[in-house]
């Protein structure tokens, strides 16, 4: 045998991390959560993930860039992207805010494109339709300024 069980465990843990990262980029917190759920010891997980981070094999910044680009292409608003990235993926608010600024997304046109794709170019026929459009865009993560710029109030 020759190997202690501790060396074997760390080697198996490293293999597990490589497999997870081989599928797609993942945040540090995502990886940590998945590995701890598989009953790996916390200190071993932290040590291995720290090593992966130092070697550049895992990068929250790289993951965040990919994640944000994907969400923008799905026409999600800034507020929803920020909430998902920080709450679900464990990314820092500062990192996500910085990357959102660097991407220079035109949130107003993105909101308008989504509104037109979902509801067409015609303005809402009545208050009920207007509220439906506003709620939809709010759920997609657009702020009220962006929403009111692209959803006209009904003529009544």
Automatic annotation (TrEMBL):
UniProt similarity note: Belongs to the RecX family.
Species name: Idiomarina zobellii
Sequence ranges assigned to domain RecX first three-helical in this UniProt record: 15-50
Start and end residues of each RecX third three-helical domain: 105-150
Name assigned to this protein: Regulatory protein RecX
Keywords: Cytoplasm
Major location category of this protein: cytoplasm
Classification via Pfam families: RecX_HTH1, RecX_HTH2, RecX_HTH3
Compartment annotation: Cytoplasm
Gene Ontology terms: biological process: regulation of DNA repair
Cited function: Modulates RecA activity.
A GO cellular component entry from the record: cytoplasm
Start and end residues of each RecX second three-helical domain: 59-98
Domain of life: Bacteria
GN (gene name): recX
């Amino acid at each position: 045998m020759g190997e202690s069980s501790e060396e074997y465990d760390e080697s198996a843990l490293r293999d597990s991390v490589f497999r997870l990262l081989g599928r797609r980029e993942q945040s540090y917190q995502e990886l940590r959560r998945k590995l701890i759920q598989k009953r790996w010891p916390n200190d071993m997980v932290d040590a291995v993930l720290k090593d992966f981070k130092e070697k550049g094999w895992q990068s929250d910044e790289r993951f965040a860039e990919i994640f944000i680009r994907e969400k923008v292409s799905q026409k999600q608003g800034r507020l929803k992207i920020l909430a998902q990235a920080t709450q679900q993926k464990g990314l820092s608010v500062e990192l996500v805010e910085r990357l959102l600024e660097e991407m220079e997304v035109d949130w107003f046109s993105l909101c308008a494109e989504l509104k037109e794709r979902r509801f067409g170019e015609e303005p809402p026929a009545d208050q009920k339709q207007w509220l439906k459009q506003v709620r939809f865009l709010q759920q997609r993560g657009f702020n009220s300024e962006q929403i009111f710029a692209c959803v006209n109030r009904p003529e009544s």
